[in-house]
């Protein structure tokens, strides 16, 4: 992990609307489709904020990240079952032991996503599942994605194909973050055309805008509870064996 991105995670993951809204959405999906108790494994644990929330929800959590620097903030939160590990290698988890595996915006960073999904599937118990989020719309791939180390943005068909290659099926899927899609599409199209440089940091917003975006995300979650969304800047999915 880029040290700047890790510092940003530590600073913003409990306040910035995108991190908070994504965590709230994933917790809802987990509780509805893969409820605790049980073991939950997060690959790409980052600074540990998500793992802490999953533990508080009732899961026995374990996590790993390719960056050894991520271990210190995780352990500062009281998370002990965390380690540095490459998600492309066989996972340091007993086969068939996980009620849930969580992959939050990590699959797009992999040059071998099927290998990652295959490893995740090996960790799952027979009734377990994978909850993942990925950025949507390959046409929006641009300079910002490349600075973040993204190999791709996902179409629904692409995700389904990779899941099948790993022996998995898409049990449930929705877009999310629909309310920011129009602005993001314009910004990224302009950046791509003009080759406009920007940092890999998330766009800063005022406290008022942060609060407004969180409220919009809450309204969106209420819609997703009733029916998957057909469009949005990201995808959220549940994969099972």
CATH class descriptor name: Alpha Beta
Order of helices and strands: HHEHEHEEHEHHEHHE
Helix and strand content put the structural class at alpha/beta
The CATH topology corresponds to Rossmann fold
User: Biggest sheet, in brief?
Assistant: 7 strands, mixed
The domain tally reads: 1
Describe this structure in words.
- The chain has a 7-stranded mixed beta sheet with strand order 3-2-1-4-5-7-6, with helices on both faces.
- Helix 2 packs parallel to helix 9.
- It has helices spanning 3-12, 17-33, 49-56, 71-76, 113-123, 143-148, 156-165, 181-194, 207-226, and strands spanning 39-43, 60-65, 82-84, 98-104, 124-135, 169-176, 234-240.
- 42% of the residues lie in helices and 20% in strands.
- It has a single domain, classed as Rossmann fold (3-Layer(aba) Sandwich).
Task: Throw out a few tags for this protein.
alpha/beta; Rossmann fold; 42% helix; 9 helices; 241 residues; seven-stranded mixed sheet; 7 strands
Write the layout of secondary structure elements.
Elements: H1 3-12, H2 17-33, E1 39-43, H3 49-56, E2 60-65, H4 71-76, E3 82-84, E4 98-104, H5 113-123, E5 124-135, H6 143-148, H7 156-165, E6 169-176, H8 181-194, H9 207-226, E7 234-240
Parallel strand pairs: 1-2, 1-4, 2-3, 4-5
Antiparallel strand pairs: 5-7, 6-7
Helix pairs in contact: 2-9
In short:
The chain has 241 residues and is an alpha/beta fold. The chain has helices at residues 3-12, 17-33, 49-56, 71-76, 113-123, 143-148, 156-165, 181-194, 207-226; strands at 39-43, 60-65, 82-84, 98-104, 124-135, 169-176, 234-240. A 7-stranded mixed sheet has the order 3-2-1-4-5-7-6, sandwiched between helices.
